[in-house]
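Notes from hallway chat w/ T.B., transcribed later so I don't forget. T.B. wanted the structure written out for a chain they're using in a teaching module, and asked if we could keep both sequence and structure tokens in one place. Agreed to drop them here.
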Amino acid sequence: MKRLSFPPALSTLLAACTPTGTRALRAGNKAPDFTAQAALGGKVYTYSLADALKHGPVVLYFYPAAFTTGCTLEAHDFAAAIDRYKTLGASVIGVSRDDIATLQRFSVSECRGRFPVAADPDGSITQAYGAVMPLVGKVANRVSYVIAPDGTLLYRYASLLPGKHVANTLHALEQRQGQQFGR
């Protein structure tokens, strides 16, 4: 297993930085549309954000590299929470700069066939979302977005530490649901 880990102080600094030429997206921005090769349970298909948004909100999360310690933990967390996302009407998609063959294996073993992961080998999706790893550049930063069905970004969370991405995106979806129903 590849290891990509940073001390907490460096993780915080890296997550706060945005590399030159990219712009971090914020809540209220329009989510860049994309289509990409993705794998779900080892099967490759074409994922379309626009099509996914027709069925409800989308949690889009970027991660540095398949099969690294933090990314494996994060994939397990998202897989374990998929039923909660579905209850809130949302779907999940992970994106990394890995190739599709690597993601086919990752989608089975670490995502446990519960949600798709998309390949962004040229970094165009990562770049469009301002999710490029500062100082490294060739990998995605660990950033999670909640996107409303109209394509508006509702929430953004960036931290190299994988532990709070699921809890924070679920909380953002619960808040959205509460606002829809006047709670």
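Follow-up for T.B.: The first helix runs from residue 8 to 16. Might be a good example for the class.
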